[in-house]
Write a structure and sequence with these properties.
The structure is a homodimer of 414-residue chains. Chain A folds into 2 domains: 240 residues, Aldehyde Dehydrogenase, Chain A, domain 1, CATH 3.40.605; 147 residues, Aldehyde Dehydrogenase, Chain A, domain 2. Chain A contains 16 helices and 16 strands. At the A-B interface, helix 1, helix 10, helix 15, strand 13 and strand 16 of A face helix 1, helix 10, helix 15, strand 13 and strand 16 of B.
C-alpha cells in the first residue's frame, strides 16, 4: 500500500473518534499544540533552514523565500493563532433545527464534522498549522498536502503537532502530512472518494483550477479575487477616492484587494483627474479604456486581458461606464464572485447592485478589504469560498461541518 | 455554437432576472404551468405515445415503459405537484444572519438562488416538470437533460412549460431542455463551469457515479440507499419485526427501503426464527451469514457482494453481530450514508449509534422509510443528498439556494 492510501485509511478510521470528542478535549489538544510549537522552535527552525537553503539553491524568488521563511516570531504567531482557535465556539453538536411530526417522530438536525478533509496548498508552512488547528477544532481528520519546497518545515510541524496530540485525548493520527509531493500522487488524492469528504485547495488560481478540473472528491473553491469598485454618478468624491486607494494600495497582494475600478461617466468628467492623481501619488500603474484616456491624457491603454487580471500588485484597471447596469454587466462577466463594491448616494442603484451582482460579498460605501474573518467578527477563517455550494464567502468554523438528522420514534412505520 | 452552449448562455443571461422575481411572480408562473399542463394534456399524451412506441420497438423492459408512460391522471398529478410547490414558502431573500461591527459596518447574509442548475436524469418524464417547478420556485434557471427514451415527452412538457412562462413575469427562457442526448454532449455539460453552478443527477447508482467521476461543475450526489436496520439485544421483538417488515416490504423499490438487517446475537437466538417466518410470509428472499444460518436452517448464504447491494427488491441481507460496535462498523463500511436505524431499549447504544454512524438520517425505533420530504414536513423535495457538502439528507427548497453577504458602510476603510 502506498503512503497516500495508508494515511487515508488511518484518517478514515480515526474520524469517528474525533467526532465524539468534547469541546474541552479538543481545546486542550489545541493548547498542547501551541505549547509544543513554542517548545520545539529550535527544531522547527533548523528544519525550515533546510527548505530555505534548498530554495535558494534552486533559485526560488525572494517573495517565495519570504513566504517559506519561519522565524521565532512567526512560530509565536502560529501558536497564538492556535490559542485563538481554541477560544472560538465549537460548532459540532449544535442542534440546528428540531421539530415533532404529527405521528410522534421527534426530528433533530445536528451539526457534525465533515469527516476527513484534504488540504492542498502552496509554499507557506503556516497553513500547515492553521489547517490542522481548524480541522481539529471542528472534529475533522486532515490530510495535508503542501508543496515540496516546504517539505522539511511541514514534516517538522506535523511531527510537533502529533507529539502534542499524543498528550491529549485526541488521536495523534488525526493530522497526517503527505510526504510524497509528486503530481501523480496529488492526482490520486483528488480522486479518493470514499476516504476524503472534501478537498480544500488554498493557493493561486492555477492550483485551484487544476484541483477543480481533476477532482472527483467534492471541492470548496477558494480565494481568487478579481474585485471591482464601481463609482456611481452620485458618489461622494472624497469617499470614492479614499475607498479606491484603500482597496488597491493598503495590501495589494491579497485576494480582497481591488483590481478594476469602474467609473460612471458623469463622475469621471468631474473627478477622474483627482482619482488618477491620488493613485499616482501611491505609485499605482493605471491601465485605462479609451473613454478614461480621453478624460485623463497619458494613461496606459487597457487590453481585454486586463479586465480578467488579478494583479495582486500596484496595478489597477480602469473603465468608464454609462450607468450602474453596465457596471453590473462588466462585473458579472469578468469578476470571480469574490468581493464587489458600489460607491453611491443613490439607494436605487445600490439595491440593483446588491440584487444583480453575483458575488460572495457586496459592499456599499465600504472597502472590499473587509472580506476577512477577523473583520467580519468570525475569528479564524478557513478561506474565502468563491463558489455557491456549501459555503459562500468567508468560511468560519461551520463551513468545516455537515449535519445529520436524528429521528426518535416508538415503533412508527409507514 | 452548439445547442448546449447556446442554451447555457441563454440560461446564464436570464438568471439575474429570475433572481429578482418576487414570490408572487414565481407562484403565478407556477399556477400558469399547472393550468397549461392540464390544458395541453392531449398534445402531451400524443408525444408521449411516440416514446412508448419507440420504447416498445427497441425492447425496453415493462418497468421502464411503465415509468415512461404518461396518462391523464399522471398529468393531473404533475399539475397538483406544481400547485403544492407554489404553496411552499419562498426561501429567496431570507435574511439568514445580520449584525453590526464596531466600525459601523452593517452585515447581512441573504439567501439567493444558486443561479443555473443542471439536472441529469433517467426515463421518468415527471422529473422534467418537478425539476422545472422547484428551480423556478427558488429563482434558478435550469438546464434539463433527460434520457433519449423520453425525448418526445420531455420536449412536449418543456414546450408547454415555456408557453405558460410566456404568460407570466418569468422569462420563458428560464427552463431549457437539452435535445441532444448524446453522451459526448452530456460530458461537455458536466464540465461547463462558469455557466452551470451545480449539477444534480437523479437516477441509478451508475448515472450518479459517472457524473461524480466526470464533472468539474460541483455536484450534489443523491439517492443511492443501502440502508440498514440494527436490532439490538434489548429490542422489543414485536416492534423489531414490524419495523423490518415495513422497511423492506412497504415499497421495496425506493432508496429508503432496508437492504440489510443486522441482528444482535442474543436477540437472534431468541427471535430470529420469528423474524424469518414473518419475512417469508411476505415473500422476502433472505441472504444470510453463517451465524444466522446456524440459528435458522435453510437460508441462502450471503456473499461479500450482498453487503454492498441495493436490491430495490424483495431481497434482504441478514447478518448476526456481537454488539452495537460491530453493527456500526458494518454500516460505516458498506452503507451509502443514506438512512440507518437502530431498534433498541438501551439508550447508551442508541447514543453510540447516533454519534458514530456516518449517514444523513439516523432512526431509533422507527422505519427508514420516513426519509421523505412529505414525511419530514418539507413538502416537495429535490432529492436526498448522500454527500456531506452543502445539503445532507432530504433536500427541501433551501438546498437550491446559496447566500451572499451584503455590507453597508459610510466610507469605512482598513
Amino acid at each position: 500500500m502506498n503512503e497516500l492510501m495508508e494515511k487515508a485509511k488511518m484518517l478514515k478510521s480515526v474520524a469517528p473518534r474525533l467526532a465524539a470528542l468534547t469541546a474541552e478535549q479538543k481545546n486542550q489538544a489545541l493548547i498542547f499544540m501551541a505549547e509544543q510549537l513554542i517548545a520545539s522552535a529550535d527544531f522547527i527552525l533548523e528544519e525550515n533552514e533546510k527548505d530555505i537553503a534548498a530554495g535558494q539553491a534552486s533559485g526560488l524568488s525572494r517573495a517565495l523565500l519570504d513566504r517559506l521563511q519561519l522565524t521565532r516570531q512567526r512560530i509565536e504567531e502560529m501558536a497564538e493563532g492556535i490559542r485563538q482557535v481554541a477560544e472560538l465556539t465549537d460548532p459540532v453538536g449544535e442542534v440546528i433545527n428540531s421539530w415533532e411530526r404529527p405521528n410522534g417522530l421527534k426530528i433533530e438536525q445536528v451539526r457534525v464534522p465533515l469527516g476527513v478533509i484534504g488540504m492542498i496548498y502552496e509554499a507557506r508552512p503556516n497553513v500547515t498549522v492553521d489547517a490542522a488547528a481548524l480541522c481539529l477544532k471542528t472534529g475533522n481528520a486532515v490530510l495535508l498536502r503542501g508543496s515540496s519546497s516546504a517539505i522539511h518545515s511541514n514534516k517538522a510541524l506535523v511531527h510537533v503537532i502529533q507529539q502534542a496530540l499524543e498528550k491529549s485525548d485526541c488521536p495523534a493520527d488525526a493530522v497526517q502530512l503527505l510526504e510524497d509531493t509528486s503530481r501523480q500522487t496529488a492526482n490520486q488524492m483528488f480522486r479518493l472518494n470514499g476516504y476524503l469528504d472534501v478537498l480544500i485547495p488554498r493557493g493561486g488560481a492555477q492550483l485551484i483550477q487544476s484541483v477543480i478540473e481533476q477532482a472527483s472528491v467534492p471541492v470548496i473553491e477558494t480565494g481568487v479575487g478579481n474585485c471591482h469598485m464601481y463609482i456611481d454618478e452620485t458618489a461622494d468624491p472624497q469617499m470614492a477616492i479614499a475607498l479606491v486607494l484603500n482597496g488597491k494600495t493598503q495590501r495589494p497582494s491579497v485576494c480582497n484587494a481591488v483590481e478594476t475600478v469602474l467609473v460612471h461617466e458623469s463622475w469621471a468628467k468631474a473627478h477622474l483627474q483627482d482619482l488618477v492623481t491620488a493613485l499616482k501619488e501611491k505609485q499605482v500603474e493605471i491601465r485605462a479604456d479609451d473613454k478614461a484616456r480621453a478624460l485623463v491624457p497619458g494613461l496606459v491603454p487597457a487590453t481585454e486581458q486586463d479586465w480578467h487580471e488579478e494583479y495582486l500588485d500596484l496595478i489597477l484597471a480602469m473603465k468608464v461606464v454609462a450607468d450602474v447596469e453596465q457596471a453590473i454587466e462588466h462585473i458579472n462577466r469578468y469578476g470571480t464572485k469574490h468581493s464587489e463594491a458600489i460607491i453611491s448616494a443613490t439607494e436605487e442603484n445600490v439595491a440593483k447592485f446588491f440584487q444583480q451582482v453575483d458575488a460572495a460579498a457586496l459592499y456599499h460605501n465600504a472597502s472590499t478589504r473587509f472580506t476577512d474573518g477577523f473583520e467580519f467578527g468570525f475569528g479564524a477563517e478557513i478561506g474565502i469560498s468563491t463558489q455557491k455550494l456549501h459555503a459562500r464567502g468567508l468560511m468560519g468554523l461551520p463551513a468545516l461541518t455537515s449535519s445529520k438528522y436524528v429521528i426518535r420514534g416508538q415503533g412508527q412505520i409507514r
